[in-house]
C-alpha cells in the first residue's frame, strides 16, 4: 500500500498519474498547504522539507516501510519498484538527464512564473518577464527535441513524460493571457495532447476532487505557503 500525501498542484499530479497508470494500490492523505498542514510535525516526519508530494510505501525494499519525497525521486522509486515506465537500460542516462531538466528547470521556473504573476503582492515587471522568458526557453528546448520523436526518451512512454505533463497541464496559468500557451510550440503541444489522451490521465485529473482544500490566498495562506517571507512565521 502506498500512502500518498497530496495537494492538487502540479508535482503531486505527476505521482497521481503514475499511480493510475501502474494500478498500484494507494491511499490519499490530503495535505492542505494553504492551511499550513505541510508544516505539522506528522507531515515533517515524512518530508522534512515540508512540501508535497511525498509517499510512504508500507511494502518497501526488503519488506521495510519506505518514505520518499520530491516528485522526481518518487517517480524513480515507483518505476524501479514496478519495473514500468523506466525506459530501456540503454536510455537511462538520457532519462536521468531529462528528468533533472524538468525538476531543476521547467518545474521551478514554472512555479516562479506562477508566483510572480498570481501570488506576489507586487507585480514586478522584471521578475514576471524573467520567469516567463525562461519558461518559453524551456518549452523551446523540449519542442525542438520532440520534433524528432513521440516521447521524450526512447521509443516508449516513461516517467519523464509524466513529469513534463504535470507542469504542461498548468501552461495556461504559467503563461496567462495567451489564448493557447503552447501554440508557439507545436511539437510540445502535440506531445501534451498525446499524453492527455491516455485513459489514466482522466483518472489522475479526478484524484482528490472529492476533497476540499482552501482556495483563498489570504494572509494565513501566504504565511503557510511562503513562511520565509515572514520572519515571525518561519518554520
Automatic annotation (TrEMBL):
Transmembrane regions listed in the UniProt entry: none
Keywords: Transferase
Residue ranges the record marks as coiled coil: none
Domain spans labelled GST C-terminal: 88-225
InterPro entries attached to this UniProt entry: Glutathione-S-Trfase_C-like, Glutathione-S-Trfase_C_sf, Glutathione_S-Trfase, Glutathione_S-Trfase_N, Thioredoxin-like_sf
Segments forming domain GST N-terminal: 1-86
One Pfam family linked to the record: GST_C_2
Protein origin, superkingdom: Bacteria
Molecular function terms from GO: transferase activity
Protein name listed in UniProt: Glutathione S-transferase like protein
Species, as recorded: Caballeronia sordidicola (Burkholderia sordidicola)
Amino acid at each position: 500500500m502506498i500512502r500518498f500525501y497530496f495537494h492538487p498542484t502540479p508535482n503531486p499530479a505527476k505521482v497521481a498519474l503514475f499511480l493510475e497508470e501502474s494500478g498500484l494500490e494507494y491511499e490519499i492523505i490530503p495535505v492542505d498547504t494553504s492551511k499550513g498542514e505541510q508544516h505539522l510535525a506528522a507531515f515533517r516526519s515524512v518530508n522534512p522539507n515540508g512540501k508535497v508530494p511525498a509517499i510512504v510505501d508500507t511494502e518497501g525494499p526488503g519488506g521495510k516501510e519506505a518514505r520518499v519525497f520530491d516528485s522526481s525521486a518518487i517517480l524513480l522509486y515507483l518505476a524501479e519498484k514496478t519495473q514500468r515506465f523506466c525506459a530501456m537500460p540503454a536510455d537511462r542516462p538520457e532519462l536521468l538527464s531529462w528528468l533533472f531538466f524538468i525538476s531543476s528547470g521547467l518545474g521551478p521556473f514554472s512555479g516562479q512564473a506562477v508566483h510572480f504573476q498570481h501570488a506576489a503582492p507586487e507585480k514586478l515587471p522584471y521578475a514576471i518577464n524573467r520567469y516567463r522568458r525562461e519558461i518559453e526557453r524551456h518549452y523551446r528546448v523540449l519542442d525542438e527535441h520532440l520534433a524528432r520523436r513521440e516521447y521524450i526518451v526512447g521509443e516508449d512512454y516513461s516517467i519523464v513524460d509524466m513529469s513534463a505533463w504535470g507542469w504542461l497541464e498548468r501552461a495556461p496559468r504559467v503563461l496567462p493571457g495567451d489564448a493557447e500557451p503552447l501554440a508557439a510550440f507545436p511539437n510540445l503541444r502535440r506531445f501534451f495532447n498525446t499524453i492527455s489522451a491516455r485513459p489514466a490521465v482522466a483518472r489522475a485529473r479526478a484524484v482528490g476532487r472529492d476533497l476540499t482544500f482552501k482556495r483563498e490566498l489570504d494572509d494565513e495562506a501566504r504565511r503557510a505557503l511562503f513562511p520565509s517571507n515572514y520572519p515571525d512565521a518561519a518554520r
